[in-house]
Amino acid sequence: MEWTGARYADTPTAEVRTRIAAAPERVWELVCDITLMPGLSTELRSVAWLDGAAGPALGARFAGRSEHASLGVWETTSYVVEYEAQRVFAWAVEDPERPSALWRFSLTAADDGGTELTQWVRLGPGRSGLSHAIDRMPEKEQKIVYVRMREFEQNMTATLDAIRKLAEGSGAGEASGAAEAGA
């Protein structure tokens, strides 16, 4: 990730993609299994569907509990804001109209039967735990945002690699990435 000098109000984004030698149906099963994600994450500790939901659907909600050495422990409620089976699963953290973060998995079927998987995140525009760090050190806002976006990029790379290994049947016990459910 390049240094952009972005501020939180700029709603910076990060995106990572990988090619998976597995059918989109298999990749989709993994992407939509939010209970799998804490095992792939360096921050996400637990996640559960709310309101009796058993899986992603437009408007469904889930709760996540995360932990970060610099940001502490926090809990969020996320709302599924985009859902198209075997193509897109996106959620807004906290407020669907003004989320602290917006996350998206996108799948594209490849001609050879494989899948291109993309994970994308946009920070803000709603306040998050990062906002509190910026409030304490406003002169370091650009560095704080850069470091956090870099962490997201690294964690998403590890998450997609773990999903790839699971989908391809290699290294099911080796998943150690990071799928972040809340910012």
List keywords for this structure.
183 residues; alpha+beta; 7-stranded antiparallel beta sheet; 3 helices; 25% helix; globular; disordered C terminus
Structure in words:
This protein has 183 residues and is an alpha+beta fold. It is built from three helices and seven strands; from the N terminus they run βαββββββαα. The protein has a seven-stranded antiparallel sheet, covered by helices on one side. Strand 5 and strand 6 form a beta hairpin. Helix 1 packs across helix 3 and helix 2 packs antiparallel against helix 3. The chain is globular, with a radius of gyration of 16 Å. The C terminus is likely disordered.
Q: How is this fold's topology laid out?
A:
Blueprint: E1 13-20, H1 24-32, E2 44-49, E3 61-68, E4 72-84, E5 88-93, E6 101-109, E7 115-123, H2 129-136, H3 141-168
Antiparallel strand pairs: 1-7, 2-3, 3-4, 4-5, 5-6, 6-7
Helix pairs in contact: 1-3, 2-3
Question: How do you describe this structure in short?
Answer:
By secondary structure, the protein is an alpha+beta fold. 25% of the residues lie in helices and 32% in strands. Strands 1-7-6-5-4-3-2 form a 7-stranded antiparallel β-sheet, covered by helices on one side.
